[in-house]
Design a protein that fits this description.
The protein is mainly α. The chain contains four helices and no strands.
Length: 192
């Protein structure tokens, strides 16, 4: 444990000395960008997984659609029976022709409006689901596109860091020996 603590302290000291220099700052900036991009990719992967889990179709929508179909059939039968009853009342002179037509038109309007209201109310859950699915698809596509862009950024940062290391090594060699290594020679006496 003391060796680990000593090694950590040695790394901190080295980092404090070298991050003040230009090369250290560039390396730190590239490293921070790399870590941030990796975290972004991980976050996008988690978001994509959550969005894919939410894409399942709930069972209550299918049940509500079946119930709506049943109600619409019942309304159709009631409308047909009302229409037949109105025609029979006119044919058997229970209602006068004008009165019977007014009653039939009123009945058809009420029947149509009630059918439209039942349909719209019943389809509300389906439309909410469709809107939610559309939003999920859009969010999923956006997350995938952002992940692809983040992965491309990660590739660029990796290449830039690789080039940084290569140039740092080359620049360090140049600074250490700007004219190259001196030739090995044997000591000679100076002749004047």
């Amino acid at each position: 444990a003391t060796q680990i603590a000593a090694e950590k302290q040695r790394l901190r000291d080295w980092s404090a000395r070298h991050t003040k220099w230009y090369v250290g700052r560039i390396g730190r900036r590239l490293g921070d960008g790399f870590r941030a991009t990796v975290a972004e990719v991980e976050g996008l992967n988690e978001r994509i997984a959550r969005l894919q889990e939410q894409a399942d179709l709930p069972d209550d929508v299918a049940k509500s659609q079946d119930a709506l179909a049943k109600r619409m059939r019942i309304l159709a039968v009631i409308g047909l029976l009302g229409l037949v009853a109105g025609i029979l009342l006119i044919v058997f002179d229970v209602l006068a022709l004008i009165t019977g037509l007014i009653v039939l038109v009123g009945f058809l309007i009420v029947w149509f409006l009630s059918g439209a209201l039942v349909y719209l109310k019943g389809q509300q859950l389906l439309y909410q689901l469709l809107n939610r699915r559309t939003q999920l698809d859009t969010d999923l596509e956006t997350a995938r596109r952002h992940r692809a862009e983040a992965l491309e950024d990660l590739r660029r940062l990796s290449r830039a860091y690789r080039q940084f290391l290569d140039w740092s090594r080359a620049f360090g060699s140049f600074v250490q020996a700007p004219l190259g290594q001196p030739p090995a020679c044997s000591p000679q006496k100076l002749l004047v």
